[in-house]
Amino acid sequence: MRPVPHATPLRRAPVQRRSAERLARILDACADLLDEVGYDDLSTRAVAQRAGVPIGSVYRFFGNKRQMADALAQRNLERFTARVTDRLKGAGDRGWRYAMDVVIDEYLDMKRTAPGFSLVDFGNQIPVGTRRTEPNHRVADRLTDLLSAYLRRTPDESLRRTILIAVETADGLVHLAFRLAPEGDEQVIEELREMLRAYLARVLD
């Protein structure tokens, strides 16, 4: 199975505030349309119409809809990281179990509420139904850096491997939970928490 490449760079990065706002509208429209019509029926023209921008504005940033989906996935990762960081900043020293619950809770909230997230999350489900590993490596790297700072641990290779295994495990069980129930089967989610606590305790306690 061919891995997903890193998020495709924008054709042109926004410099002015007006350009950045236009890019945000394009990605918002892309997310909404993903929920409404799915990836196969998504088109750059429909995104431009929904965003209220000329089609040329879309092509200024993206060559095709896959690049839009990649950019949306990258924005999702940035927003997820910011949400976890904000919660941990105000938490004080509450340990890795609290941090783990924050990570899971914020991911589940985005899965349930963020437009387009159920199809692209951090980039591993386009085309729909595929399971690819590269986004999980990006997520694990980001979480390793974030959690090592919170836990005052060195982000060495052992910790990175541990977090990657935890992310891969969580990815599989969260997908199972949402196949079983539209909002995520709570029993599966609780089993996920217990499994991660038992596994991470060996390294983080």
Tell me the helix content. Answer: over 70%
Can you give the mean pLDDT?
Answer: 87
Secondary structure tally, helices: 9
- What characterizes the major β-sheet? none
Calculate the terminal CA-CA distance, rounded to whole Å: 36 Å
Decide which structural class fits the backbone: mainly alpha
**What is the succession of H and E elements?**
HHHHHHHHH
What Rg is obtained from the alpha carbons, in whole angstroms? 18 Å
As a percent range, the share of strand residues is under 5%
Low-pLDDT runs: 1-7
What gross morphology would you assign?
globular
Count the beta strands.
0
List keywords for this structure.
205 residues, mainly alpha, globular, disordered N terminus
Structure explained in plain terms:
It is a single chain. With 205 residues, this protein is mostly helical. It is built from 9 helices and no strands. It has helices at 17-37, 44-51, 55-61, 65-89, 95-113, 117-120, 134-151, 157-180, 186-204. Helix 4 (65-89) runs antiparallel to helix 5, helix 4 runs parallel beside helix 7 (134-151) and helix 7 packs across helix 8. The chain is globular. The model is unreliable at 1-7 (pLDDT under 50).
